[in-house]
Please model this.
Amino acid sequence: MKKKILALFLTLILSGCFSTPPIKVDNICTLLDEEVSWYQAIRASEKKYSAPAAVQLAIIYQESRFASDAKPPRKKLFGVIPWFRQTSAYGFAQAVDDTWEWYKRDTSNHNAERDDFEDTADFTGWYIQQTNQRSGVKKSDAYNQYLAYHEGHGGFNKKSYQDKPWLIKIAKVVEKNAIRYKQQLDQCGSQLDRNNIWRFF
Model:
């Protein structure tokens, strides 16, 4: 009996933020060539919202490592026992409940799911557009787009991130990844477009 309790306890402690394994991305072209529907979704979102694909992908990667059911880590009770999660963030984009509901109302995409990549891409493009309109951040500015994504428009406009050096460091990583993804997509975009056309036949 004690062994069973111990095994259950260890399982709870070792359970992380992901059920779906996170994906390590060295080259975004390789991933999008394998995940055809993801490429189609991110291009559709880019066209719809004029939100650069590279910026969207860098934000999604930072939030979930492309794990569909990613969740924030649990708080620890007494510093040991896994307890409640810090926020309601869930899915590819780690969108919280209130923001996701806002997105669904604003776009009339009432059946959108946070673990669906097509919906995630549309949400990310939409949010980038909202940040452009509400905070005046260029859609191609991955650094400030991510800060606004993390802090919300109210927090970003009040510069809440200035007291969070750890967040500024992460935003710089997102910016670097967006630059790298853009360079890679510039090289492989036409090939991915051709591959997607032929897959319909």
Observations:
- The first strand starts at residue 74 and ends at 77.
- Residues 2-198 form a domain with the Lysozyme fold (CATH 1.10.530.10).
- The chain has one domain: 2-198.
